[in-house]
Amino acid sequence: MNSINLFFWFKTAVLFLLRSGRSTALLFIMVMTAVAVLVFLSSLAVGVNDAMVKNSVQLYSGHISGFNLPDSLKQEDLLKSGVTGVLRRELSAGALSNGRRIETVMLALIDPHAERKYSALWKKMISGEYPASGERAVFISHVVAERLGLSVGDEVSFISEFANAPSRLAVSGIFKAGVSQFDRLAFAPYGAVPINPAKWQAAVFLEDGAEPSAIIAVYNAFLPGKLDFRSWGEIMPDLRQLIELNYVSMSMVIVLVFGVVAVGIAAAFSIFIFKHLREYAVMKAMGVMPVEMTLLIVAEISIMSISAVVAGAAIGVIAVFIATATGIDLTAFTSHNQYFAVSGVIIPRLTFYSLLAPPAVCFIFSALSAIWPAMLVRRARAADILRAV
User: Fold this and answer.
1) Domain residues of the chain, as ranges?
2) Which of 380, 270, 275, 264 is nearest to 19 (CA)?
3) pLDDT in tens, 316-339
C-alpha cells in the first residue's frame, strides 16, 4: 500500500468521524476526560510520594545518614554536588533524672542554628523555645517530660558514662513528633555536657531530584576506609515499599480505567458500523480490500484517540500547574500519619511516568479496541448485507 492510499484512507476516516459528529464528540470527551484525570492523579500520586519522603527525611535523618564517622572527617568534606546541607550530631546514651524519676535517653549535641535551617523536628515544639548555641539547656519529648514531671524552665540532671558527675540542664522546650522513635531523643547545644568526640553522626540533606545512592557512591570513592552511609530507603524500608506500592496501585488504576474506556470505544464503533453497514458493504462491492477496510476502522479510532489524548494531557498538565501553585492541603486527613509529621500539603509533580503513562496506556487500549469493529467489517459479506437492506 503506497503513501497516496494511506493519505486517502486517513482523509476518509476524518470525514467519517466528522459526519458522525455526536458519537465522535462523546467518545472524544470520554477519552479526553479519562486522560486528563489520570494525568492529574498520577502527578498527585508522585506528589504524595515526594511529601512522604520529604516529611520523613526532613524531620531528623536527612536523605543520607552517616554513622560512627571519625572526628577527622569534617562536615565540609561531605558537601558535594547535590548536597544542600550536612548536620553534625554527637550522640551520648545516658539518663535524665528529676528527683527519683529516671528516664533513659539518647542525647544529641547539635548546632541549633544549623538544625533549624535543615531539619524540622523543632517545628514539632509544643511549648518553650528551641535551645540556643552555648546554653546549658535540653530539648525533650513530651513523653519524657510527662514521665519525669518536667515543664519548660525546670532543671534536670543528665548522667552518662563520659561524665564523673551529673550535668544540670534547663528544659528549654518540649516537642511532640508523633513518631515513637523520637520519644527517647533529647537535644542540647554543643558543650552542654561532656561527651566522647571521637565519633559523630551525619544527616545529609540533598537537592530535589538528587539520588542518595549516587551521593553515597561519591563518598565511598573519595573517603578513606569503609564508612557507614545509608540512604533513607535503607533506613526506612517500610516507606520505600509504600512508595513502590503507590506506583503499582496507580498503574493498576490506569490500566483498569482505560480497559473500561476501550470497551466503550469498541462498543460505540461497533454500533456505528452496524448503523452504517450498508455503506461499508457498498465499499466492499466496489472492490475495497479487507485490509483497506481494517485500515479505515483503525484510522478512525486512532485519529479520535490521539486527538483526545493530546487534549486530555494538556488539560491534565494545566490542572497540575494550577495545583502546584498553591498545593493541596490534606492536613485534616494526615494529622496522625507519621509520614506526614511535618506538613500535610501535597504538591503534584509531573514526571515521565505521570505525564506519559496515561496517554500511552490509552493509545494501546484504543488500538486494541479497533479489533472488534474491524472484524465485524471484514467478516460481513457485501452481497448478504445488500440483500438484507
Assistant:
1) 3-56+239-388, 64-209
2) 275
3) 999 999 999 888 888 877 777 777
